[in-house]
Amino acid sequence: MARLNKSDFRDSILELVKSTEAHPTARWVYDNLREEYPSVAIGTVYRNLNILVSEGLIKSIQFDDSTDHFDANTGKHYHFICERCGAIRDLQIPFDPSLEHLVEKHTEYKIHNHRLDFYGLCEQCKRT
Amino acid sequence: MARLNKSDFRDSILELVKSTEAHPTARWVYDNLREEYPSVAIGTVYRNLNILVSEGLIKSIQFDDSTDHFDANTGKHYHFICERCGAIRDLQIPFDPSLEHLVEKHTEYKIHNHRLDFYGLCEQCKRT
DNA sequence: GTTCATGCAAATCGTTTGCACAATG
DNA sequence: CATTGTGCAAACGATTTGCATGAAC
Q1: pLDDT band per the 50, 70, 90 thresholds, residue A7
Q2: Min CA distance, A2 vs chain B (Å)?
Q3: Which positions of strand C lie within 7 Å of protein CB atoms?
């Protein structure tokens, strides 16, 4: 079996993650990658995803489904999760650092970051 | 071995979770419960924790460590997570429903809830 | 021939579940 | 005797890891 060129392979994974805003899981990447690389092993997908994370090219995010999700949008932003269909969407409302100042005013903590997730129904699901 | 009275056992778990604000894991509950009930199985702890969750007496929360945490504070509140020691603390800053209105103004989503976590260093860890 | 990423399978970790049994009523 | 919660161990799903192999240089 021909060895896969290192950068080709990892680049394909990066392209895949970049191609969607659906915050895919390793399994989704694996399933899609198999169309191009039928012999790929899921362990290899995990390894390369973790390398991309450690290189800062993608981010790993955990939601409430005990499955890692990956996001090529590495900037600070908030998320919406549909409680019915499970869709995870980026939100365009501005990241608000003043929330961190508020916490620092009320506590002794040094705040570096925060995360804000909204739960509800997406356009489709709220109609049914 | 004498059968454990249903409410005694489950109540002990509830008491344990109520006794701390540290957002304990099932394993922590298990380890502490064994002092009083040395023969308890961890599966039983999980079963009872899940029953307490479904009864609305405690909440299950996932953070970034792929382990379920339980919280007897069932009211809406925000969390702080220390990036160094892993401590999870409740925050006293008010829950702000206007954040949900902001999202509804900018999107087509129907928002039911939100979650806000702050990351940084706790009083102890920020000194070292 | 050394390096390095792969496929594969086994291992690991947290959690859930099937089952036989003992206690309750 | 029907019900219910338990201990135990097996099962499970997501992720990681050890190892032999084959490609690249």
Answers
A1: low
A2: 36
A3: 4-10, 14-18, 22-24
Amino acid type, B98: S
pLDDT digits (tens, 9 = 90+) for B4-39: 445 578 999 999 999 999 999 999 999 999 998 999
State pTM to two decimals.
0.90
Give the per-residue SS3 of B53-112: HHCCCCEEEECCCCCEEEECCCCCCCEEEECCCCCEEECCCCCCCHHHHHHHHHCCCEEE
Asked if the model's pLDDT at residue A128 lies above 90, the reply is no
Q: Which residues pair with A117 in a beta bridge?
A: A79, B115
Count, residues in chain A:
128
Domains and their CATH numbers in chain B: 6-71 (1.10.10.10), 78-127 (3.30.1490.190)
Residue holding tokens 């039911």? B112
Q: Residue A6 — pLDDT band, cuts 50, 70, 90?
A: low
Q: Which tens digits make up the pLDDT trace of B64-110?
A: 999 999 999 999 999 999 999 999 999 999 999 999 999 999 999 99
CB of A24 closer than 8 Å to CB of A17 = yes
Chain A positions in Cβ-Cβ contact with residue B83 (cut-off 8 Å): 112
Per-residue CA distances from B76 to A95, A107, B91, B113 (Å): 21, 18, 10, 9
CB contact under 8 A, B116 and A110: no
Query: Across the interface, do B113 and A118 touch by the CB < 8 Å criterion?
Result: yes
Q: Is the CB of A41 under 7 A from strand C?
A: yes
Q: Between the CA of A116 and the C1' of C17, what is the distance in angstroms?
A: 35
